[in-house]
Amino acid sequence: MTLSPAARFLLVLAVLTAAALLLPFVANRGLVFLAGVVAINVVLGMAFNLLFSTAGLLSFGQATFSATGAYAVALLLLRLPDIPFLITLALAAAAGALAAVVIGFVALRRTEGVYFAVLTLAFAELVHVVIAKTSFFGRNDGLTGIPRPRLGPIDLAQGQAYYVFVILVTALLIACLWWVTHSRLGRSFRAVRLDPMRAAFLGIDVRRRQLEAFAISGACAATAGGLMGPLTSIVSPDLAHWGESTKPILFTLLGGAGHFWGPLVGAVVFSAVEYGTRSLAGASDLITGGLLLAVVLAIPGGLLGLAALLVARLRPNRASDQPSPPAVPVAGAAEGAAR
């Protein structure tokens, strides 16, 4: 029995979520913390991939939205702790969507292509400077002592409760991104990416669709960023630095931009390489960057693209496996045609 794409996705998501939830029983606290960070990075990569592979927009300012969500959650937890945490996350998502709409409205009206990417990078650096120079946001020291909240009667500060919450929320965000990608809205995003002029001729509002893609990506990135503060107990201006904006791009290219699960594979592999080279002082960044450069140059389709190519080559040719039709004598064929 062949499963539908939605059923296959739900099966894969359920297996990955179950594996992540079982991790605290077999790994130490350090690896569990790293797994929580990886889950957040997966959402950041998939939110970028929605823009890049589906809507055809290259943004170098994704850190703006994750930092917006992180600071929104941190400020609300520190100054208005009585607000339910789910509402806090919803407000962070709204802040990220609003930031994306404002930036997208300005950037999409003035530029496109590489100029659009550079303009998003300029906005990201502007946000980074504002955060670093404003006392309300803690300046360069950031905001510290961010508590892990309660979720009704559940205290997320107890044991691995917050890690479980992070995994469940990121799984929900991944499901939302998959639904958007494969919905009618996602198909209109792809139409705009493939041929904006033809899409406009068919009645699609190109600028509106691009803004919607930007807003959805910003909301998901902000929600994921909002999960980071209580996990690490600190948010700093480094979250809005341009270097953080390159990570979702690296995750996507490393795993495979043409695949929905590409950013997940890229984030896991990238984190594994960083973790494996953490003890090599001064060489860790060099080794990580060299591996990424080699993969991107040697495998343009990413790791999932390479895997798909290998499977296609190893799979036997179905046409050659089928028995050939029996030979028909020429005379018999002519006789049948005459009849």
Summarize the structure.
The chain is 72% helix and 2% strand.
Count of runs of 4 or more consecutive helical residues: 15
Q: What class do helices, strands and sheet pairing give? A: mainly alpha
Tell me the overall shape. Answer: globular
Distance between the termini: 43 Å
Oligomer: single chain
String of helices and strands: HHHHHEEEHHHHEHHHHHH
Topology:
Elements: H1 5-22, H2 29-54, H3 62-79, H4 85-110, H5 114-133, E1 143-144, E2 150-151, E3 154-155, H6 161-182, H7 184-194, H8 196-201, H9 206-232, E4 234-235, H10 242-255, H11 262-276, H12 284-298, H13 302-314, H14 318-321, H15 330-338
Antiparallel strand pairs: 1-4, 2-3
Characterization of this structure:
The protein has 339 residues and is mainly α. 72% of the residues lie in helices and 2% in strands. It is built from 15 helices and four strands. The strands form two sheets. The protein has a two-stranded antiparallel sheet with strand order 1-4. The longest helix is centred in the middle third of the chain and has 27 residues, at 206-232. The relative contact order is 0.16.
Notable traits:
single chain; 339 residues; mainly alpha; two-stranded antiparallel sheet; globular; disordered C terminus
